[in-house]
Write a structure and sequence with these properties.
The structure holds 3 protein chains of 3 kinds.
Chain A (H helix, E strand, L loop, with lengths): L1 H31 L4 H4 L14 H8 L3 H32 L5 H10 L5 H14 L8 H5 L4 H13 L3 H8 L4 H9 L4 H17 L2 H6 L8 H9 L8 H34 L2
Helix pairs in contact in A: 1-14, 3-14, 4-8, 4-11, 9-10, 11-14, 13-14
Chain B lengths: L1 H34 L1 E6 L4 H18 L3 E5 L6 H8 L8 E5 L3 H6 L6 H4 L3 H6 L3 H4 L12 E13 H6 L9 H15 L4 E2 L4 H10 L10 H8 L2 H23 L6 E2 L9 H6 L5 E5 L2 H8 L9 E4 L9 E11 L6 H12 L1 H10 L18 H8 L6 E4 L8 H22 L4 H15 L1
Parallel strand pairs in B: 1-2, 1-3, 5-6, 5-7, 9-10
Antiparallel strand pairs in B: 3-9, 4-7, 4-8, 4-9
Chain C lengths: L2 H10 L1 H35 L2 E2 L7 E2 L3 H14 L8 H31 L6 H13 L2 H11 L5 H9 L15 H26 L3 H9 L4 H29 L3 H6 L13 H10 L4 H26 L5
Antiparallel strand pairs in C: 1-2
Helix pairs in contact in C: 3-4, 3-13, 4-5, 4-8, 4-10, 4-12, 5-8, 6-8, 8-10, 9-10, 10-13, 12-13
The chains are: A mainly alpha, B alpha/beta, C mainly alpha.
């Protein structure tokens, strides 16, 4: 029993060490965001803001485009979340439960796209969007991400894991497959819907690569891009407002994470083990 | 699962609200053109002061032309590259800055509209401006491709107290004695004497004063010839030695350096370091003047700091002039209104407000040069012009690709400075080779 | 049944026809979008790689010239060309160094974090939350925070000087030798957290009675981990290594934010994807950028696929 106690103590100590490592940047940022740059750049670092100022946040809010960036990101995130849920579940349902010619061929062709990295397609995507006159338009981003291959794959796995009897019963009733999707499959997919929504929303909130290729004028930027832009003017060296901005940028993440923590971990089980 | 139901509902509601808000904003944004013409206007985001002043000037314009809405969209990084890249997608702004070093490539690519094609009375417009400032923006067809919105002179700003402590009233007039005065200034004040970016701007001014010919970067041979010129080599050696002796060796010996990069004193650029009084001297242009007044109101021109001409040398005494046009997008669907806006901002009235009134830089409209409202610091830079043998217009090189070449030169200089900090030495020949080869790669 | 017959049966049956029509209707949006933005775009890239173009003028067919240029940069870099002559090579070299640092460390760390999180010691749920948070935060936001920490008088130098007296105060992001390690540290911090979720899930799915049995057999926690847990999560380890490697090779945003779009001093912070981005959108040479993308894809995927063939059987 004594031995076990030591093991537990060691685990707690190591755990606490990593706890510090993984929270320190956030804690330090939080403290610094209320400091003057003069204090924040002191060495050795101090921990109590003196004077305690809100100027760093005010500076952020004074940027006229700040609310626009947040709204752009929300628009992007909402559209991809909804479209992925709807279109992804539709496809996943069809791939999982219907049987028709070419189904597996198409599915495998889609699945192979998971391996196709973004950098290979970025030039054509830019050219296609330019042809559609969608460069510098926030709606170009959700268009590219309307329904991800990942989503389709997750949805297919999810529907395969459900008992088939539900759907067999519907078939006997003579309901169409599409009706069965909306009336039976969709209501049964709540955990999946939450997972997809959270992942897509956070994905949009954290997106950077596509936005910097597609969006050109500051008023169309998404949040992370705007933050990088606002404070990376060549002649700007004070970091405290940036730090304040990063903290605000982490709020949605934090919220989603705290509310859905169990879901997110659980969904990984679906993703990795129900293949 | 009771929670999840509410959560899903919550998400859906939030999402719908967000979309509704986003769409309605977007629709409002798109309805505007039916009421008014929207002109998109881009410049580089040159710090808070300039952005603020431009917004004021745009406000003035909107009062006169209520039918035209101007959206100001400064771009922070790699300005000219970004503007060029947004053309093929039709996402380029209607009016935008073009620096004289990028003008020829912009004209060659056909992205700028010739003003002669918009305005039949262009001759009388041209006549209002200084000829030497229009020259970089004339195409091979002899047409003008934009109106110069302002111009700037490179000068030497000095902190009066610093110099007084070192027993000087003004900085020395030639490069060698200027360089040797720096150490004395630092020793007397305990403050770094000179802050410099270590880039083409300072270097070319120095090289010309040392007697270098006007840089010709039109062919590989001419690039090699210029860098192998003795005066160029001497200037480059003195320039690099200055940092080696004035920063690297001083730091090693634990002494205050007498030359620093802006970064070395936690600043973004020379003007900021000078305004913060982290350094006593800097070579900057007219754009620094409103910045200092705005950001460092207690650091007063005339009392604490003053302006001197650049040092000279055996080749003569020279300074550089910088100018930027407002160019019109060749594919703009509102070219006429865009031109109207450019003509306002770069015209007499606009410049009187922005350039003279807000003290931005120097007016390109000839008759404004005598305006009684010009800030005294700007007046002084103009008065000092007669000291110089010549004023060279930026980019101070013969080349079609000056913009990219300057970027390359600055990068190479920066990399050798960074290496010098680590190795405590540098190799002049390898620096010259790198400069030559990297420039040739751009040709 | 012959193929012809199969079709006959298929289309003659009303039920099958209906299933086909509705099934296809359901997958149509997903299929079209992904085929256009995936396969079509990929073929387009391949096509563009044979052209000289600046987005504005008419594309000019130049055969293999873009590929020759790309290989010249790679070979030139190997033979010691100066940095400005070989950004593609420097990007590749940097990204390989970066991957070699990041992948092993982040995988081991993720396993350790997951083990602590699943250990059910006091406080483990608080630990879990803290470990997983960075993984959900945007890498750009993380990079912006760390730029401040990596400044000369920043937090990292302060800590390092506490641990190693006399470490000094290097300017990480402006030193050729330290900028990639700096990015690696940032990446490890974020991605180990991300991968930890995978391992936590993997460990949760281990049946409890297996562990209980091992405990009754007298195995201590360390031995239990090595002999029972590790073999069971091995497929996840392979998966994490592959995903981690592919991700690290494609690194872009950390480099863009921490080194700038030009790749930093002497391209010391350049990565291949940043170089492709720069070539396509700042140097306006989409043909050359496409050729570089195809070359990198080939260089990156052949080893990955070979690795998969050899070791990856367990996870597919």
């Amino acid at each position: 029993m004594k031995k076990r106690f030591y093991y537990e103590l060691i685990t707690i100590l190591i755990g606490a060490f990593f706890f510090i490592v993984y929270t320190m940047p956030f804690i330090r940022s939080l403290v610094v965001s209320f400091m003057t740059w003069e204090q924040a750049s002191q060495i050795p670092p101090t921990w109590i803001p003196n004077p305690f100022i809100l100027e760093n946040y005010m500076r952020l809010f004074r940027i006229e485009l700040f609310p626009k960036w947040v709204i752009n990101t929300l628009v992007y995130g909402s559209i991809v979340s909804i479209s992925n849920v709807l279109l992804g579940l539709m496809a996943g349902y069809s791939f999982a439960l219907l049987r028709y010619l070419g189904r597996d061929l198409i599915f495998n062709a889609l699945l192979a796209l998971i391996m196709l990295p973004m950098f290979v397609t970025m030039v054509p995507l830019y050219v296609i969007l330019a042809q559609l006159r969608l460069i510098d338009n926030i709606f170009a981003l959700p268009l590219l991400g309307l329904v991800g291959v990942n989503t389709v794959f997750m949805a297919k796995q999810y529907f395969l894991s459900l008992p088939r009897e539900f759907f067999e019963a519907a078939k006997l009733d003579g309901a169409s497959y599409i009706r069965a999707f909306f009336e039976i499959a969709l209501p049964m997919a709540k955990p999946l819907i939450i997972t997809i929504t959270v992942y897509q929303f956070l994905g949009a909130w954290n997106a950077f690569f596509l936005p910097i290729i597609v969006l050109k004028s500051p008023e169309n930027f998404v949040y992370t891009q705007g933050l990088n832009y606002a404070f990376s003017r060549a002649w700007y060296v004070e970091y405290t407002p940036i730090i304040a901005g990063t903290l605000i940028g982490s709020i949605p993440t934090l919220l989603f994470f705290i509310i859905f923590r169990r879901f997110l971990i659980g969904s990984i089980v679906i993703r990795t083990y129900r293949r | 699962m009771a929670l999840s139901k509410r959560v899903i509902l919550g998400i859906v509601v939030i999402a719908i609200i967000a979309i509704a808000v986003g769409l309605s904003l977007n629709l409002v944004g798109q309805q505007k053109p039916s009421v008014a013409v929207v002109i998109r206007f881009s410049g580089w985001g040159a710090g808070e002061t300039e952005v603020k002043n431009y917004e004021k000037a745009i406000g003035q314009f909107s009062k006169q032309y209520p039918g035209v809405v101007v959206k100001y969209e400064p771009i922070s990084q790699m300005y000219h590259e970004n503007i060029l890249a947004s053309f093929p997608a039709g996402a380029a702004p209607d009016v935008f800055y073009v620096d004289s070093s990028w003008a020829s490539i912009f004209i060659k690519q056909g992205v700028l509209k010739a003003l002669d094609d918009i305005d039949p009375g262009i001759a009388s417009v041209k006549a209002q401006y200084y000829d030497f400032l229009l020259k970089p923006f004339m195409g091979p067809d002899g047409k003008l491709y934009g109106l110069p919105k302002d111009w700037s002179i490179l000068f030497l700003a000095y902190n009066k107290q610093c110099l007084a402590r070192a027993g000087l009233t003004t900085p020395p007039n030639d490069w060698p004695s200027f360089i040797s005065s720096l150490k004395a200034i630092t020793d007397a004040t305990g403050k770094p004497a000179l802050v410099d970016h270590y880039h083409w701007r300072t270097f070319v001014a120095m090289a010309l004063a040392y007697g270098a010919p006007y840089p010709d970067f039109t062919s590989a041979d001419s690039v090699r010839a210029w860098f192998n010129n003795d005066a160029v080599k001497k200037a480059l050696k003195d320039y690099m030695d200055l940092y080696l002796d004035g920063y690297v060796k001083r730091m090693d010996a634990g002494k205050t350096p007498y030359v620093v990069l802006p970064r070395d004193v936690d600043s973004g650029w020379g003007g900021e370091a000078f305004g913060k009084q982290a350094a006593c001297l800097t070579l900057e242009g007219s754009w620094m003047i409103p910045f200092i007044r705005d950001q460092f109101p207690n650091f007063k021109y005339g009392e604490q700091w003053d302006i001197a001409p650049l040092p000279g040398g055996p080749g003569g005494r020279f300074t550089l002039a910088f100018t930027v046009i407002l160019g019109i997008n060749s594919k703009s669907s509102h070219a006429e209104d865009a031109y109207r806006f450019a003509k306002y901002i770069a015209g007499k009235e606009g410049q009187e407000f922005l350039v003279i009134g807000l003290g931005h830089t120097l007016p390109t409209v000839k008759e404004l040069a005598t305006s009684p409202n010009m800030w005294p610091e700007h007046r002084k830079t103009l008065d000092q012009l007669n000291v110089y043998n010549n004023v060279y217009v930026w980019p101070t090189m013969r080349s079609d690709k000056a913009g990219a070449i300057i970027g390359t030169i600055d990068t190479v200089l920066q990399s050798h400075i960074a290496n010098m900090k680590q190795t405590k030495t540098y190799d002049l020949n390898s620096l010259i080779n790198d400069l030559i080869n990297s420039i040739i790669k751009n040709l | 049944m012959s193929l012809k017959n199969k079709y006959h049966v298929f289309f003659s049956s009303k039920k099958h026809r209906r299933e086909f029509l509705e099934g296809v209707l359901l997958i149509l949006p997903a299929t079209i979008m992904n085929f256009v933005f995936g396969y079509f775009a990929f073929i387009y890239t391949f096509y563009l790689s044979f052209f000289k173009w600046n987005y504005i003028t008419q594309p000019l067919f130049i055969g293999m010239e873009n590929y020759v240029r790309a290989f010249n940069e790679l070979i030139g870099g190997l033979l010691g060309a100066r940095w400005y002559e070989a950004p593609f090579f420097i990007g590749l070299r940097n990204v390989l160094i970066y991957t070699a640092i990041v992948v092993p460390i982040q995988t081991v760390l993720a396993i350790v974090l997951a083990a602590i999180a699943s250990s059910r010691v006091r406080g483990s749920s608080i630990f879990t939350t803290s470990y997983l948070l960075p993984g959900f935060t945007s890498s750009v936001i993380i990079a912006l925070i760390f730029i401040y920490f990596f400044s000369q008088k920043g937090f990292i130098n302060y800590i390092l000087n506490l641990i190693i007296p006399g470490f000094g105060y290097p300017d990480w992001l402006y030193l050729k030798s330290l900028i990639i390690p700096a990015m690696a540290i940032v990446a490890i911090w974020g991605t180990s957290s991300n991968l930890a979720i995978l391992f936590i899930a993997a460990m949760q799915s281990i049946p409890r009675d297996v562990l209980e049995q091992a405990r009754l057999d007298g195995a201590g926690p360390v031995r239990r981990f090595i002999h029972v847990v590790f073999p069971l999560i091995k497929p996840t380890v392979v998966y994490a290594i592959i995903v981690g490697t592919i991700g690290a090779l494609q690194m872009f945003d950390l480099s863009f934010v921490m080194a700038g779009p030009q790749g930093g001093i002497e391209y010391s912070g350049m990565t291949v994807v940043l170089d492709i981005y720069r070539t396509a959108f700042l140097l306006l040479d989409p043909g050359y950028a496409s050729a570089k993308a195809i070359v990198f894809l080939t260089l990156m995927y052949i080893p990955t696929v070979l690795f998969l063939r050899k070791y990856g059987g367990g996870f597919r």
